Amino acid sequence: PHRGPIEAIMRSLSDHIEGQTLPELVSVTSVARHRCNEYLSVLINAKEIVKTNQKGVLFTLNPDRYPSR
């Protein structure tokens, strides 16, 4: 049941290499904000994505795992 939203997050981040905010990712996945936050935490712990705090909180694909992006 969690695979679809997680894949949607990964697809969306690969399409937006500049990164996306939590509200943008919530709208992409169509799940509750707290659930999207849980998925993002799982992806961060798996080192699939990184969280940066430059101009607000941005989530991007991990450049070590996805160097072409």
Can you describe what's shown?
The protein is mainly α and 69 residues long. It has one domain: Arc Repressor Mutant, subunit A, CATH 1.10.10. 49% of the residues lie in helices and 12% in strands. It contains three helices and two strands. The protein has helices spanning 3-15, 22-29, 33-45, and strands at residues 49-52, 58-61. It has a two-stranded antiparallel sheet with strand order 1-2. The longest helix has 13 residues, at 3-15. The protein is globular. The termini are far apart.
What are the SSEs and their pairings?
Elements lengths: L2 H13 L6 H8 L3 H13 L3 E4 L5 E4 L8
Antiparallel strand pairs: 1-2
Estimate the strand proportion. 5-15%
Report, as a whole number of angstroms, the end-to-end distance: 28 Å
Measured on Cα atoms, how large is the radius of gyration? 11 Å
Quote the average pLDDT: 93
Count of helices?
Answer: 3
CATH class: Mainly Alpha
Q: Number of domains in the coordinates?
A: 1
CATH topology call: Arc Repressor Mutant, subunit A
Helix/strand/pairing category = mainly alpha
Briefly, what is this?
This protein is mainly α.
Characteristic key phrases:
Arc Repressor Mutant, subunit A, 69 residues, mainly alpha, two-stranded antiparallel sheet, 3 helices
